[in-house]
Amino acid sequence: MSQIYIGYDFKVNPLQPGTEILIAELGYVGFESFVETEKGVTAYIQKEEWKPNILEDIHILNSEEFKIEYVFSEIEQINWNSEWEKNFDPIEVDGKCTVRAPFHSIKNFEYEIVIEPKMSFGTGHHETTFMMLQFILENNYEGKTVLDMGCGTAVLAILAEMRGASKLDAIDIDEWCFENSLENIQRNNCDNISVFLGDASLLVEKKYDIIIANINRNILLNDMEAYRKCLDKDGELYLSGFYNEDLPIIKEACNNLGFTFVENKEKNKWVAAKFKI
Question: What's the mean per-residue pLDDT of the chain?
Answer without folding.
Answer: 88
